[in-house]
Amino acid sequence: MSLRSQFLVLMLAATCLAESGPIAQPARSKTELKKIILRTRHFGAHGMGYNDRSLFQLSRAITPADVPNLLFLLDEKGDILKDDVDVRVGARFALASQCEAAIQPVQQAAEHNQEIAWVDAEEIMDLIAEFQGCDPATQAKAHEAWAAIHAAAEERMAKEQQRLQEKAADDARIQKNALKMSDPEQKKTLTRAEREEVFRRSIKAAGLENPQTPEQKALVDRMYRTMVLDEPSGKTNQ
């Protein structure tokens, strides 16, 4: 093949590649990402850490295909070693470096309480909103996502607080009814459902929720008959 023919073949191949768009990069392993992240630390006022320079380096070193594994790195608990903490902090910067490609995955993971905590998600959105490597439209989206994540977190906290208050009220009510069980006259004022609540609390406290031996099963049956059915303690099943 002549030099001219070889040149034409190369030009045709380059044209085909250009028309087909950029080749998607495969996702890196978590181990590879850890190494990349740790290499972007820089010395600052508080020692080695991450900064704007880290964001620019990470934006060139990783791709949107790495976002799922970066989310996993945020959720890894590991040993309490400096590198483990640095990787989790660096994973926030790595996600932020991907600008718009990271916003939806991070927001969904946080709002569904999966993989990452809402505080991590808020910090990532703050980083995206301030990162000069992201365009203004993406920075605005990050602000909106931060507000949505914060609102969802407050709603979850309010529901959890309500659940804890209701549980405390139930505990107090059942404890009060348990005291009534020791007085025959007051016991008569309790409904069967209320006596069953006290019974369930009692066997749980005794570790008899799942009786295994015949003796344990007999004891649970006797407690039920005495506490719920109000049979004399000496009466046995015929």
Keywords:
mainly alpha, two-stranded antiparallel sheet, 11 helices, 2 strands
Number of domains: 2
The SS-based structural class is: mainly alpha
- Low-confidence spans: 3-22
* Helix residue percentage: 55-70%
Tell me the β content.
under 5%
Describe this structure in words.
The protein is mainly alpha-helical and 238 residues long. The protein has two domains: 28-159, no CATH class; 181-227, no CATH class. The protein has helices at 3-20, 30-38, 52-61, 67-75, 82-96, 100-111, 118-130, 136-180, 184-187, 192-205, 214-227, and strands at residues 42-44, 47-49. It has a two-stranded antiparallel ribbon. It is elongated and about 80 Å long. The N and C termini lie far apart (103 Å).
